[in-house]
Structure formats: structure tokens, C-alpha cells
Design a protein that fits this description.
alpha/beta; Rossmann fold; eight-stranded mixed sheet; two-stranded parallel sheet; globular; Polyketide_Oxido-like; Putative NADH-flavin reductase; oxidoreductase activity, acting on the CH-NH group of donors, NAD or NADP as acceptor
């Protein structure tokens, strides 16, 4: 399977790239930073919004690990997803998204998201709200084979790889210890396994540590 990983030079993108190579996928990294070097994969140097249909032709899946953090760039969480969905519209190429936990629901009726609860930390609300907006736009698309993978509330870049995780769906879930956390390494396994298993096309799911 041929896959492209956008923002492969970020922490999440790097973890997914490493796991995809470990599982035998043919990987292309798409990055904006021309200082990025990786002799294990083909590299395309392009901004996401500059990508054209031809750039993504021939891939079985495109994974975007794009993230933005400043007030000026937060809307890119939506505009990049819309752009990628437009490029892949009507094709068999899957679009998999590294999402956020803030858009997970806290009630059985799936009406209230974590980001909209009083307990949600104020400092994370702008990013969580921007990622929520991107998911809302993605849900409008039935012309793209999209999958949105939310991590646990604590998304830990340096936590050890265990090779195990719990799959949850739309609802914010705690493990038996009352925790919601996942390492980048285990999240990457879940993402690459979804490439293989294709259980959540047109859906969002989430993962957390056992």
C-alpha cells in the first residue's frame, strides 16, 4: 500500500511514518520545511494548500498530521481538511486525519463535546475548537473516504510504546485506572492498523491506553 503522510516532520507525523515503515508500507512524506531530510522515504516539499490532484494521485491513503497553534493559523484546521477532501473527492484514496480529543462527546446522546464543558482547560479551547470545526466540515462529506482518529485527552509524545490500546468511538472514554491517555507511538499503531482494517470509513473513532 502506498501512503502519503502530510506534516511528517511533526511529532505525530513522525511517529506514524515510523510505524508505517515498520509495517511495510511504501511511504511518501509531504512537508513544507525544505530542511527536512529522510533517506528512508520519498519527500515532497509542498504546503498543503498548494497541493494539487496530481500530487496525491496513485496513493491508497493520505494521512494528515497537520496542526496549527496560533490564533492566525487555527482556521487552517478546517481549510486544509476541506482542500484535501476536494482533491480526493470521488477517488478511492482514503483520507485519515490526526484529530483532537476535545470533540469527543461526554454524554450518551452525543450532544455535548468535551471542549464545550466547563471543566475543559481554557488554554486548550482555541485549538480544540478549531479542530472541532474541521471535524464538523469533514462530516458533511460523503464523497471522500475519510476517517478521523481522536487521541485520548493526554496525548503523550515521549510515553513508551506498549503495542496495546483500547478502541472507543464517539464518546470520551476512561480506562480501568480512570485515565484518558495514549502515547504517540501507540496512537501511530492504531492509525496504521486502521489503514489495514478499514473499520471506520466515513467515521470518527478514538483510542486510549489500556
Amino acid at each position: 500500500m502506498k501512503i502519503a503522510i502530510l506534516a511528517a516532520n511533526g511529532k505525530a507525523g513522525e511517529a506514524i511514518l515510523k510505524e508505517a515503515l515498520n509495517q511495510g508500507y511504501e511511504v511518501t512524506a509531504i512537508v513544507r520545511n525544505k530542511e527536512y531530510k529522510n533517506d528512508k522515504v520519498k519527500v515532497i516539499y509542498k504546503d498543503i494548500l498548494s497541493l494539487e490532484k496530481a500530487d496525491l494521485a496513485g496513493f491508497d491513503a493520505v494521512i494528515t498530521a497537520f496542526a496549527a497553534w496560533t490564533p492566525q493559523t487555527l482556521p487552517l484546521h478546517t481549510t486544509t481538511l476541506v482542500h484535501l477532501a476536494d482533491l480526493l473527492s470521488g477517488t478511492n484514496t482514503r483520507l485519515l486525519v490526526v484529530g483532537g480529543a476535545g470533540s469527543l462527546y461526554v454524554d450518551d446522546a452525543l450532544t455535548t463535546m468535551l471542549v464545550d464543558t466547563p471543566e475543559f482547560p481554557d488554554e486548550y479551547k482555541p485549538v480544540a475548537s478549531a479542530m472541532k470545526a474541521g471535524l464538523i466540515e469533514l462530516r458533511k462529506r460523503n464523497d471522500v473516504k475519510w476517517t478521523y482518529l481522536s487521541p485520548a485527552a493526554e496525548f503523550e509524545p515521549d510515553a513508551p510504546k506498549t503495542g496495546e490500546y483500547i478502541i472507543a468511538e464517539e464518546k470520551f472514554t476512561l480506562n480501568s485506572k480512570g485515565e484518558s491517555k495514549i502515547s504517540y507511538a501507540d496512537y501511530a499503531i492504531a492509525m496504521v492498523n486502521e489503514l489495514k482494517n478499514a473499520k471506520f470509513i466515513g467515521k470518527r473513532f478514538s483510542v486510549l491506553e489500556k
